[in-house]
Amino acid sequence: MTPMSDWPRNRLLLALPPRHLKRLMPDLEHIRCERGQVLMDADSPLDHVYFPDSGVVSVVAVYADGSVIEMATIGREGCTGMQAYFGAKTSSVRLLVQIPGSAARMSRAAFARAMETMPPFRHLMSAYIHAFLEQVLVSVACNGAHSLKERLTRWLLMMRDRSDGDALPITQSLLADMLGVQRPTITNAARELEDAGLIERGRRQVTILDRPGLTGESCECYQLVRSRLAFHLPRTYT
């Protein structure tokens, strides 16, 4: 069995009082999350809730023609399956692994049981739902109010916040899909950031070279999301 000191790394779970986390441990399964893996698809049974330890999961809407667009991102500061909080049994979104890592997986039944029997867990999940919904609302507003370069910068910074290093294993095709634009359009925006010395593009990787400079190029939405997460969930997002 993995020692408690080594796992989990999910900050939402670690925000629980130690005795309550210990009670949850038998219901948590450690899994690997590979790049491009669909943890849950739209209209599929909502059988599990995932608490990422590392890596990033995108919550994406799926359209009739197969195209997708990102609505929110989840890293080790949060969890998937917000609909389970309200008793839903079917997912309305796709959960797509953008940056590989690992997660603690909990069955929907165990999640519901913890919500009923552990007030600290229920209160923590309530706070996270507030933070998550505010992230979605800011994302909607950002898509309509700010330039592609600003949106791209915000997205890269949010990925960096949820990663262990500056080298992000993401492609420009992925960036285009997540931001809802054509690949040539995202290439031009990324080139501007590269020419400014803020990032370096590789074949399947984007490396952040100047994080403070990138923050300066981002719209205010990036700091707004950070501040709202910090308000609802102190010490879970850095």
Any overview of this molecule?
This protein is α+β, with helices and mostly antiparallel strands and 238 residues long. It contains 10 helices and 8 strands. It has helices at residues 11-14, 18-24, 82-85, 108-117, 119-145, 148-161, 172-179, 183-195, 211-217, 221-232, and strands spanning 29-33, 38-40, 48-62, 68-74, 94-107, 167-168, 199-201, 206-208. The strands form 2 sheets. Strands 1, 2, 3, 4 and 5 form a 5-stranded antiparallel sheet that branches. A 3-stranded antiparallel sheet has the order 6-8-7. Strand 7 (199-201) and strand 8 form a beta hairpin. The radius of gyration is 18 Å and the shape is globular. The mean pLDDT is 89.
Order of helices and strands: HHEEEEHEHHHEHHEEHH
Low-confidence stretches: none
Oligomeric state of the chains?
single chain
Q: How many β strands by DSSP?
A: 8
- Characterize the main sheet: 5 strands, antiparallel
The percentage helix is: 40-55%
Give the helix tally: 10
Q: What is the CA-based Rg, rounded? A: 18 Å
- Give the DSSP E fraction (strand runs of 2 or more residues): 15-25%
The pLDDT mean sits at: 89
**CA-to-CA gap between the ends?**
29 Å
Output the structural class. alpha+beta
Q: What does the overall shape look like? A: globular
